[in-house]
Design brief:
The longest helix is centred in the C-terminal third of the chain and has 20 residues. The strands form two sheets. The chain has a three-stranded antiparallel sheet with strand order 2-1-3. α3 crosses α8. It is elongated and about 65 Å long. The chain has 261 residues and is α+β, with helices and mostly antiparallel strands.
């Protein structure tokens, strides 16, 4: 076993080089049972996403997510007649390289200031109805996001700088021409328009809409789905649960079931 203890970038470089035999420098990010591994080929039993590693990139991408400092082992095994490498100890694997990595902190995502609780239909009913009617965004969905974001506090300010009922980040508030982000009417209207744009982008996939509202479009694009940040995954689960509650509170059927994260 090699005694090296590489940083995250070096480990990715090793994996990318190992994948060169297949004609492309590709690393697979594989998720199974809530755990993440990196590999040179899709792992049996895991959901894997291919990530191209550019030889000329100034720095390698962060494929782990926000997991702090941890140590592991890169394993070697035979799969479909080829030698492959993975950070998951699958049957037939032998240790190849010990490593310690320090993953970077999360994106400007936030878990939201509200908690899952009883629906609050008394909060800004006219503003929510008007925004839903104007944008076509489901009233129950709009309320669920507001509940998760601020617990309907028009003066809320998150540690990340999100403001108002819909917790608009400064750049989002500017994009939608918000003069006062602490105005409940302006915040709800801009939040609804932003959600409408996200729903169009993600073709109505509410899981991706919630993830992008929380962590940003760029982060969702980079990971090809819900990013592995704990705050974003918790946020998506919270909004989904609240949506079900608001649908029932408004006397409507429950939302369609969706695949688990």
């Amino acid at each position: 076993m090699h005694p090296l203890r590489p940083a995250a970038g070096f480990l990715l470089a090793v994996l990318a080089l190992a994948s060169a035999d297949a004609g492309a420098r590709t690393v697979y990010r594989c998720v199974q049972g809530g755990t993440v591994s990196l590999a040179t080929a899709p792992e049996p039993g895991s959901k894997c996403t291919a990530k191209e590693i550019d030889d000329n990139a100034v720095s390698t991408p962060n494929l782990w997510g926000s997991m702090g400092v941890f140590s592991g082992t890169l394993y070697e095994r035979e799969q479909d007649g080829q030698k492959v490498y993975s950070t998951r100890n699958l049957p037939g694997s032998t240790p190849y390289l010990k490593f310690t990595v320090q993953t970077p902190p999360g994106e400007p995502a936030h878990p939201g200031l509200g908690t899952v609780g009883k629906p609050r239909l008394d909060r800004y009913p006219s503003e929510f109805k008007a925004a839903a009617r104007q944008t076509g965004v489901d009233d129950a969905w709009l309320r669920a996001v507001a509940h998760a974001e601020s617990d309907f506090d028009a003066k809320a300010l998150s540690p990340k700088g999100a403001m108002g009922v819909m917790q608009l980040m400064p750049e989002v508030a500017r994009e939608y021409g918000v003069a006062d982000p602490y105005s409940s009417a302006e915040s709800i209207n801009a939040g609804a328009r932003h959600l409408r744009a996200l729903m169009r982008r993600y073709k109505g996939d509410l899981t991706l809409v919630a993830a992008a509202y929380n962590a940003g479009i760029g982060t969702v694009s980079r990971y090809g789905g819900v990013p592995p940040y704990a705050e974003t995954q918790e946020y998506v689960s919270k909004v989904t649960a609240l949506y079900e509650l608001y649908l029932r509170a408004l006397g409507r059927k429950q939302a369609l079931e969706r695949p688990a994260l």
